[in-house]
Design brief:
The complex is a heterodimer of chains A (95) and B (156). Chain A is α+β, with helices and mostly antiparallel strands. Chain A has 2 helices and 6 strands, in the order E-E-H-H-E-E-E-E. Chain B is of the alpha/beta class and 156 residues long. Classes of the chains: A alpha+beta (95), B alpha/beta (156).
Chain lengths: 95, 156
């Protein structure tokens, strides 16, 4: 299954300025693993040190948030589009 | 990240960001920066990056708006569409620090994306004060300050 992973603007500098990449993958997790395998510098911006997707990294398959599907186990089929969409967070010092 | 980082922004837009911070006080305000990045353009720019418009947003952190802001993926997508409609790029974000310095916090660092410019305005007792801009280092260890070049509209 060949899927296309759309790369958001702030990460393109780590992917040779590409806005997308295609991989053969059966799940979202496999596609993201191949993405970070090919572009290693993306890894720290997508995943925590523990290997979990960062909370502000939103991943969609054909427009559906994987949090409401099977997360990274969400199966993919030929022609699917995986989108990485930023949400933005921050704030001043204290809780 | 070794190149000099400077961010050009019109004085009027600086005023709008500061006003948004004042109006949102004691809560944090947030919004998007729309403009152009010199590295993405074939023509030389006056600064490494120019803010040409802002897109104010609603702070979605209703549980803790005094010291946190949040832009949903949907709101970020709206900002990106607004940029594209004007032939611009989404180049960063702004937010305020009520009664705190205009310096990125550890929370800012943990949640930042690389490449984007992050403008922070300090709002002290409802009055906007210092405004700074920052970019996350490639290794995520810290922010690097951008030199903010304020353009006078009369001289733009």
């Amino acid at each position: 299954m060949t899927v296309r992973v759309m790369i958001p603007t702030p990460l393109r500098v780590y992917a040779g300025k590409r806005d997308s990449a295609e991989f053969r993958a059966g799940t979202v997790g496999e596609a993201l693993a191949q993405l970070t395998g090919e572009f290693d510098d993306l890894r720290r911006h997508l995943f925590t040190d523990e290997g979990n997707l960062r909370s502000f990294v939103n991943v969609y398959v054909n427009g559906e948030d994987i949090r409401y599907l099977s997360k990274e186990e969400t199966p993919t089929k030929d022609g699917d589009t995986i989108s990485i969409i930023p949400s933005i967070a921050g704030g001043s010092c204290c809780e | 990240m070794s190149e000099a980082l400077n961010l050009g922004i019109n004085e009027a837009l600086v005023g709008k960001i500061r006003q948004h911070g004042a109006e949102s006080y004691p809560n944090e305000c947030c919004g998007a920066l729309l403009g152009r990045d010199a590295n993405a353009e074939a023509i030389p720019a006056r600064a490494a990056r120019e803010v040409l418009e802002i897109f104010p947003l609603v702070n979605r952190r209703e549980d803790s708006p005094r010291n946190r802001f949040f832009v949903t993926a949907e709101d970020a997508h709206d900002a990106d569409k607004a940029a594209q409609a004007q032939g611009l790029d989404l180049i960063g974000w702004y937010h305020s620090h009520p009664d705190h310095p205009a310096k990125p916090s550890e929370y800012d660092r943990e949640h930042a994306w690389p490449w984007y410019s992050y403008i922070i305005v300090s709002v002290q007792n409802g009055n906007p004060r210092d405004m700074t801009s920052w970019r996350l280092q490639d290794d995520r260890s810290a922010f690097v300050a951008e030199e903010v070049e304020i353009r006078n509209p009369a001289k733009a």
